[in-house]
Design goal:
The protein is 16% helix and 25% strand. By secondary structure, the protein is of the alpha/beta class. It has a 3-stranded parallel sheet with strand order 9-10-11, covered by helices on one side. It has a two-stranded antiparallel ribbon with strand order 1-2. The protein has a two-stranded parallel ribbon with strand order 3-8.
Length: 275
C-alpha cells in the first residue's frame, strides 16, 4: 500500500498506510487501512442521465461488503456462537491481512464503469489481492468481452494483481458458477464444519431429523395435515411445477390448513405458500 499518502475526496481526508513502513506501529485492531467511494453519472436508455451517489462516504450501508470482507480476512473472535450454538473461535480465511475497501455499488446496482474504476484504483494503490463478491446471475452472464469484472480482472492480472471472485450462490446444478474466467480465482460457496440438527415430530409417532435450528420451548402445538405439492395441483398445472410449488400451480382451496411439502428442483428458487 502507499505510505501515508493522504488525499481528499469530496472534502474529506483519508490516509493510506503502508503496513511495511518502519515508522508505523501496526496493531491487531488496524484492519481497515483505506477506503474509497464513487459518485457517478449513470446513463440509461441512451438519453437519460441520473446521478447515482452514496452518502458521500465509503460506509457500507447494506452490510454485504462488510460481511464478505469478514469471511475473507476477518480477525480472530473468541467465544463466537449463534445463541450458544456452534461455539468456538471465528476468523476469516486470512485473518492477518489488511483491508482497503472500494464501495462501487449503489442501491440500483453496481455500474460497470464504477467497478472498472475501483479495480484501477486498487491497482494504483498497490494492493496485493483484489476480492470481488458481486456478479450477475448464471442465467444472464455476459461474455468476457462485455463483462466489466472479467475486463478489469484481466487488466489487474496483467499488472501482477490476483483477482479473487465469488462463484455465486446458485448450484450445485451444472453451469451455475459465475465469474468463471480463466484469469480469475473463483471461490465457491461453502459450509461450516458443524451439523446443526433439530427433530420434526409429525404426530404419527415418527421422528425426522434434519438440518435446522429450533429454540422453541413448546412441547406440543396444534397439528395440521401434510400435503405434497404434486397431489394438490390445479387442474391444468404440470405435475413438475406443482411438485416445486411453482406460483399458480397449486389449488389454493386444497392448500388451506395444511403444511405443503415442496421439492426444490429449480435452480432459481421455489415458492413457499403460507395459508
Amino acid at each position: 500500500m502507499k505510505e501515508w499518502e493522504k488525499y481528499l475526496q469530496d472534502g474529506k481526508e483519508f490516509a493510506w498506510k503502508d503496513q511495511t513502513s518502519t515508522n508505523l506501529i501496526v496493531t491487531d485492531e488496524m484492519k481497515l487501512i483505506g477506503a474509497r467511494y464513487y459518485n457517478v453519472s449513470h446513463t440509461s436508455n441512451g438519453n437519460k442521465t441520473t446521478q447515482m451517489k452514496l452518502d458521500n462516504c465509503p460506509t457500507d450501508t447494506v452490510g454485504h461488503g462488510t460481511h464478505t470482507a469478514s469471511i475473507v480476512d476477518g480477525a480472530f473472535v473468541a467465544n463466537a456462537s449463534y445463541n450458544g450454538l456452534a461455539q468456538g473461535t471465528a476468523r476469516g480465511g486470512s485473518p492477518y491481512a489488511r483491508i482497503a475497501m472500494y464501495n462501487a455499488c449503489f442501491e440500483d446496482g453496481c455500474p460497470g464503469s464504477t467497478t472498472l474504476k475501483a479495480i484501477n484504483d486498487a491497482i494504483k494503490d498497490g494492493v496485493d489481492i483484489i476480492y470481488i463478491s458481486i456478479g450477475m446471475s448464471s442465467l444472464f452472464q455476459s461474455n468476457f468481452l462485455k463483462d466489466p469484472i472479467a475486463i478489469g480482472a484481466f487488466h489487474a492480472e496483467q499488472m501482477g494483481v490476483l483477482v479473487v471472485c465469488s462463484g455465486g450462490n446458485e448450484g450445485p446444478d451444472p453451469f451455475t458458477i459465475i465469474n468463471a474466467t480463466p484469469w480469475i480465482f473463483i471461490v465457491p460457496a461453502s459450509n461450516i464444519d458443524r451439523d446443526l440438527q433439530s427433530a420434526v415430530l409429525p404426530g404419527n409417532g415418527r421422528t425426522f431429523q434434519g438440518s435446522a435450528i429450533n429454540f422453541s420451548n413448546l412441547t406440543r402445538t396444534e397439528t395440521y395435515p401434510l400435503a405434497y405439492g404434486k397431489d394438490i395441483a390445479t387442474k391444468f398445472s404440470p405435475i413438475s411445477e406443482a411438485r416445486n410449488c411453482y406460483p399458480g400451480s397449486l389449488d389454493l382451496e386444497k392448500v388451506k390448513g395444511k403444511f405443503i411439502v415442496c421439492v426444490d428442483a429449480f435452480p432459481i428458487g421455489v415458492a413457499i405458500l403460507d395459508h
